[in-house]
Design a protein that fits this description.
Blueprint (H helix, E strand, L loop, with lengths): L1 H13 L2 H23 L5 H27 L13 H9 L3 H12 L15 E2 L4 E2 L5 E3 L4 E3 L4 E3 L4 E3 L4 H30 L7 H33 L3 H5 L3 E2 L2 E2 L8 H9 L29 H10 L27 E2 L5 E2 L8
Antiparallel strand pairs: 1-2, 3-4, 5-6, 7-8, 9-10
Helix pairs in contact: 2-7, 3-6, 4-5, 6-7
Length: about 350
Amino acid sequence: MAPSHALRCCKRTLNWAPVLFINLVVGWSYYAYVVELCVYTIPNNAERISYLVVFHIFLFMFIWAYWKTIWSRPASPSMAFGLPRAEKELYEREERAERQQEILKKVAKTLPVYTRTAGGAIRYCDACQVIKPDRCHHCSTCEMCVLKMDHHCPWVNNCVGFSNYKYFVLFLAYASLYCVVICATVVQYFIKFWTKQLPDTHAKFHILFLFFVAALFFISIVSLLSYHLWLVGKNRTTIEAFRAPVFPNGPDKNGFSLGFSQNVAEVFGEQAKYWIFPVFSSLGDGHSFVTRLVHIDPEQANSVLQQNGKSPAEGETTPHVISNSVQHTEDNSIKKTDEGQTVSVTVESEP
């Protein structure tokens, strides 16, 4: 038991190595830019001050978004998605997979759960003992289920999901801009040192290396940023991009796409003034999502969560929810809900 605990502690410590590396690189870049470039190399005071102001603005935004991504605890499913005591005891005693699925289907009828496994079964996490909400996955590194999980990122030593996906995208954006600012302002002195227009000093190595490092980081980061901006526009996670979510009617890679503007709003929020700041403004509660397959009255959706012991907090944006009280049929017909409301279920074909 003790060796296992010791190994886990060592693993958790080593997981911080990439974060330490990033911070060491940023710390060195700060010294190289502020001291070696601005203090020892740039002769003009006005140029020096303007460079320092712009540099510190983007550095501050970059560090803010980066550490928000690191320290934002991944959101996990609420207790409403756990099995009630009676059903849990039956599930644990039952050895037949078919019977276990019947128990899960009975509980899932009262939850806003719509996606399934590849085999059409209810998605259940044995480790966390919860029915997985839509877009939720278990992270073996974090050892927990993460709402709208995108991926586990070693560079932030954290899971990127519903609680911090906006911060992660902003971190990539500001890291790219930080590299652009460095390259754009250092390039003229890089050329002067390279062509011997400036005498060899202790600043030469730092400035030459600073330009190369910033350029290489920019190329790698901007490619990752472009990919995640594409995912935001399509309303997909990295997991969903590689494996399409499965609905009762089958897999659909565009199942959660609601149009470009609504897809962006789901991550960044509806108020554009908050988009550039690493403050939480994403829509919903991470437990349930509107799909292009189903359209339900928001009031009815809220009642589903309230019936399961989870209601939106005051002042929160109304969660986008799918209710399983709708009976989905293969012929796209109209069915009555348990409350007697008529809900239209429409299935769109793949573009």
